[in-house]
Amino acid sequence: MSVLSPTEITDAARLRLALSRVVRALRRQGVSTLSATQVSALSTIEDLGPLRISAIAAQESLGAPAATRVVADLEAHGLVERAIDPLDKRASLIQLTALGRATISDLWSQRTLEINRMLEKLTPAERATIDAALPALEKIARD
Fold this sequence. Notes:
The protein has helices at 6-28, 36-48, 53-60, 64-76, 98-120, 124-142, and strands at 80-85, 88-96. α2 packs across α4. It has 6 helices and 2 strands, in the order ααααββαα. A hairpin with a 2-residue loop joins β1 and β2 (88-96). By secondary structure, the protein is mostly helical. The longest helix is centred in the N-terminal third of the chain and has 23 residues, at 6-28. It has one domain (6-142): Arc Repressor Mutant, subunit A.
């Protein structure tokens, strides 16, 4: 790891704080009874399709017991269900139910509307700056 300049440290700290505050504001939106971990797991299943619990654990940086609890909670809410893995009949794949798809879709809609409300408070120049930064933010989010 390289040595960071004071400006790089300050910029990274400002970005961390800004992102944390935006995420916190978004989590307060809506009436979701789901934890951030549960929402993240639902999103992962939505993005990647049916997954084994071990794959969910890896994607979410959870241990196997924690991933098992998250999936059990999502099952209890009727948001996911188990299906037989066609490649290994002994294993299960976790997939979204219709309620799970509707729940995550509603949550994303609520959060998108809230982000739009935040962006409406910006000047056109500030909005253009954010628009220009999106490719870089998407790149670091993928890594």
